[in-house]
Amino acid sequence: MIEKLSEEARIEALKHLPAWNHEPERDALTRRLTFADFSDAFAFMTRVALISEKMDHHPEWSNVWNRVDILLTTHDAGGLSARDVRLAEAVDKILGE
Predict the structure, then answer these.
(1) Sheet strand arrangement including 67-72
(2) Is the dihedral of CA 58, 37, 39, 63 positive or negative?
(3) Which pTM was predicted?
């Protein structure tokens, strides 16, 4: 079973993910990214998709032209888990952050 992060663990994780926001209604991490164009946005999504598949943890996301909106939460845990934090960290690494 995947465990939901405790309040303390969530607060600590958010300190290390300054570009991400906490969405309390769904207990999720969210981030909006803007790229130069659709090709750059789609290339980014492809890189994240490959990592997500290896992690067996997939984002909720949408893409409109040069914008990508990401929401990370673990449905099985009923909110944020360590899996979400690891995927957010991987996204930041792809972006060079």
Answers:
(1) 21-23, 28-34, 67-72, 60-64
(2) positive
(3) 0.95
Angle between helices 38-55 and 82-94 (to 10 degrees): 140
Q: What whole-number distance in Å separates Cα of residue 12 and Cα of residue 58? A: 22
Neighbours of 64 (CB within 10 A): 9
**pLDDT per position as a tens digit, 9-47:** 999 999 999 999 999 999 999 999 999 999 999 999 999
| Cα-trace Rg, the chain | 13
Contact 70, 30 (CB under 8 A): yes
Name the nearest CA neighbour of 28 among 85, 87, 90, 79: 79
